[in-house]
């Protein structure tokens, strides 16, 4: 798969802020619904009823991977997704390097870990969960 071929496309104009995408994302990846263990983030803007959708854009140049001091961020050969592998130290360098702010750091009982969209292995589960079709790929 070519880098960047599959990525989550967003339409903030139709997002109603229900956060179904966040719930599905955390459930798929952690077996629990948690607002901190997500790879997609919905935030209300300054204008009532307007929402910002933040999700990894699967960058071709992968600034998060370049910033990782333990070199555990790589592109999945099948899905093309930029993924954070095992052995992460939780330093947050990847989150700081992300130009979209799409890597969320979560402190789970003293264990700090980054969360980002990994495209669910090639079939993003947040897309069909969106009742307003604010997400596509």
Can you describe this structure?
The model has no long low-confidence stretch (mean pLDDT 93). The strands form 4 sheets. The protein has a two-stranded antiparallel ribbon with strand order 1-8. Strands 2-3 form a two-stranded antiparallel sheet. It has 137 residues and is of the alpha+beta class. It is 18% helix and 22% strand. It has a single domain (9-124), classed as Alpha-Beta Plaits (2-Layer Sandwich), CATH 3.30.70.20. 28% of the residues are buried.
Q: What's the helix-strand series?
A: EHEEHEEHEEHE
The total of beta strands comes to: 8
Outline: globular
Would you tell me the structural class of the helices and strands?
alpha+beta
**N-C termini distance:** 14 Å
Summarize model confidence as the mean pLDDT: 93
For the record, the CATH architecture stands as: 2-Layer Sandwich
| Number of DSSP helical runs | 4
Major beta sheet summary: 2 strands, antiparallel
| Low-confidence blocks of residues | none
The CATH first-level class comes to Alpha Beta
Q: What's the CATH topology name?
A: Alpha-Beta Plaits
State which percent range the strand residues make up: 15-25%
Write the layout of secondary structure elements.
Blueprint: E1 9-10, H1 20-30, E2 40-44, E3 51-55, H2 63-67, E4 73-75, E5 82-84, H3 93-97, E6 104-108, E7 111-115, H4 126-129, E8 135-136
